[in-house]
Amino acid sequence: MLMDEPFGATDPITREHLQNEFARLQKQLRKTIIFVTHDFEEAIKLGDRIAILRERSHIAQYDTPAAILAAPADEYVAGFIGQDGTLKRLALLSVADVPPALPPDSRLPQVGADASLREALDLMLSHGTDRCGTPTGVLTYASLCEAVGAPAEAVVSGDR
């Protein structure tokens, strides 16, 4: 199936709901869909593989979202990604992907293992107290940075 900018004319709230429903259906149906978008964050959220095209439809890079964010092929791809590639990588990993550092401390903010590292970072930075799931360990700021292979400065320098 080919979908060309299917959510482009929707407001941000509706767009997010449609993206989430699309992702749910894709997991359930397991069909190949070519999804055309100019929204790189949408491509990261919905794509298993991303092709970044140059002028005249030449492929600048084709890979998984994580691989493109971790190692852009060149300056063109890096410019397409933007300044906050490290923060975008946090949305691709879940808390379960990072080994717990210490036993849980009930006084600390907690997230479930299915939360993205981006959600965990947002909670760390806001000192919130949202709770979901059963805690199994502590995700430290250092372990979060290590999981995306970035120094601490890179993880907090972009927009939250």
From TrEMBL:
Superkingdom of origin organism: Bacteria
The protein's name: ABC transporter ATP-binding protein
Organism: Nonomuraea maheshkhaliensis
